[in-house]
Each structure stands twice: as structure tokens, then as C-alpha cells.
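Hi Y.,

Following your request, here is the sequence exactly as I used it, all 66 residues.
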Amino acid sequence: MTESDGAPVLVTTKVAARILRIHPETLREWVREGKYEIPKPIRVGSRFRWELDELRTYVKSRQISA
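Below is the corresponding structure, written out as C-alpha cells. Let me know if you'd prefer a different format.
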């Protein structure tokens, strides 16, 4: 999903963690430690933001087909 100007939609760490179904502090830890092949955050000032499309693609790729 992108905004009308083509820029990616960015979400907070809290929202990203909810999408990934983990606690926000767990997500922060994974970023600090380089754990897992999660999408890379974008630093905006002193905070991280996550591309919504990348998170959705990641979650979809990790789902197990029944």
C-alpha cells in the first residue's frame, strides 16, 4: 500500500509489532540483535518506522498453507 504520491505507508513500532503478533519490545530487541529476517526499519529522527507493504509481505510469506 502506498500513498497517492507513491510514497510507502510507514507504521510505528507498536503497529508493526501488532502486525507481527509480537510485543513491541520484542521487535526492538530483534532489531538490536539482528535476529530473524524481518523487514528492516526506517529511521525517522530518533524513531523507527516500518513499511506496511513489507510487513504484510513478510507475514504472508511466513504463513503455513493448510
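The first strand starts at residue 10 and ends at 11.

Thanks again,
Q.
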